[in-house]
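User: I'm preparing a small set of examples for a lab meeting where we compare how different chains pack in three dimensions. I only have the primary sequence for this one, and I'd like the structure in token form so I can line it up with the others. Please keep the answer compact; I'll paste it straight into my notes.
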Amino acid sequence: MNLCDVLVHINEELSVEQRNALEEDMRALPGVVAPRFNPGRDHLMLVAFDSEKVTHASLLGRVRTHGYKAQLVGA
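Assistant: Understood. Below is the structure token output for the 75-residue chain.
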């Protein structure tokens, strides 16, 4: 297991329900350990993941399947 973190910047302003749904969907990806939004930074989602099971590109792609414009920060 190789645990990593990546920060996903989401351009849209998401409601609480949208953020919760996105966290749940990300959590369903094999290798994703802990996706979470931080209070006060609702456009940034920190995702802890196992890089042996899932790639940065897969994480970003999953966010984009929801129709959001997003970029990885520092990856």
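A couple of notes for your slides: The longest helix spans residues 16-27. The chain has a mean pLDDT of 95.

User: Perfect, thanks.
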